[in-house]
Fold each of these.
Amino acid sequence: MKCIVGLGNPGSKYHETRHNVGFMVVDELLNRHGWQLSKGKFKGHYTIETYEGEKIILLEPQTFMNLSGESLRPLMDFYDLTPEQVTVIYDDLDLPLGKIRLRQTGGHGGHNGVRSCIDQLGTKQFNRLRFGIGRPASPITVIDYVLGKFNDKEKVDLEPAINHAADAMEAWVTQPFQKVMNDYNK
């Protein structure tokens, strides 16, 4: 069993904001297969599905970004998942819009959702899919930028990038993470 976790903030106020790009990738996977986040437990919404003969959990924590690990940790404990069986998808200011980067470890890079996951898991050793949102061009704060919605120009690049990230997660269900990194970090 593998677990794909999209980070974001709950509620319509944050729907389709840059900080919710992790939710958007999970939503793409749900839409592709006609799945729904049918379970509400562990401070999150999740589902357990079968893809290519493999069981997967898709999770969207409902804790607000900065406490995301408080949803992930109890779910991992209940389903007896190791950190290697988890991939966390989150927005990254240091990558250009739409660029994805898969890694098997790393720090939080100032991302409080990842910081929470590291704190709750007690390790930095878990798979990540960093999804580039770029940096603000205008003089606005980082908080206002990440909590802002994509503009029309950005949305043009966003859709294929979300599809690419979802493709990478589908590949990971049946392939080692290292191979997926080699194939998608181009």
Note: Strands lie at 2-6, 39-41, 44-51, 54-61, 86-92, 100-103, 127-132.
Amino acid sequence: MAGVVSPMLRRLAADRATGALVRDHGTLYLLDGQVVHAESPVAPGLDILLAGGSDRRSAGPAHGGRIGDGEREICRLGALFDAAFFALAPGRGPARFRYGHHPRYAGPGRPVPAAAIERETLRRRELLDSVWPYPALDAAPVVPRPAAPGQTVTARGRALLARADGVRTPAQLAWVLGRPAFHTLLEIRRLAAAGLVETPDPAPPSAPAGDPTAPQPTGSPAHRPTGLPAGLPDLPAGPPTGLPAGLPGRLPPGFPAHRPAAPPAPEHAPPSSPTTATDPPDIALLRRVRDALEARL
């Protein structure tokens, strides 16, 4: 289903559900199928945004008391879309919906249709990829790089680079600066595209089970010993070729060094029988059978 962020959110909107949609990276609160509040541990809340950063909030009163209702509503909607973007990020666990749950810290404000939340989330994802398509930047510590001679940096970029210490992640920088987390991600990708932030290497894709080309741990049957010339197949672990299983790797004195390998077993061999046409007869057993028959005569 192309262009769908959360099929569950669509169903809840169609059913005009009321409650909390809980996902891996956040929660959306719905009232009659519309989103009235969103929370995510990645995105700073409205109080942090109005205070200008987590440090300023603890240092003094927030600026929220000196702004009008219209400005506060704009900030509230910005925080809602910011948290919803991360709450709707792809997760590993299933989403849950708790009917009747209401947010504890949401103030008054207009609800937002779920379709608008979904449309804005898709637009932001495309915008990030269009700037610098490296999602590994979003969760890695931000490592600044020196600017090239004559290279200019915007004021927003300088403020961000000044607090990037190689340890803080984009989400932590957003909390410190009191900025929406999505805008912080976008600025970091721009800085990385300009060469002012290190772009981490993408994580190697996990190989499917049974892939013969996947790297094998040391000691496994397909381990390649050190110094093996390139182009030769991997050697199986165990005794040299041609030795029966269970024998040690060292050959006893007098044993031919290049014993021919045993012919491979047929792929669809019939069930093994006690004797076959190629097995030598058991003379001692035949003699005991003959003696028993003669004793009965």
Note: Residues 212-277 have pLDDT under 50 and may be disordered.
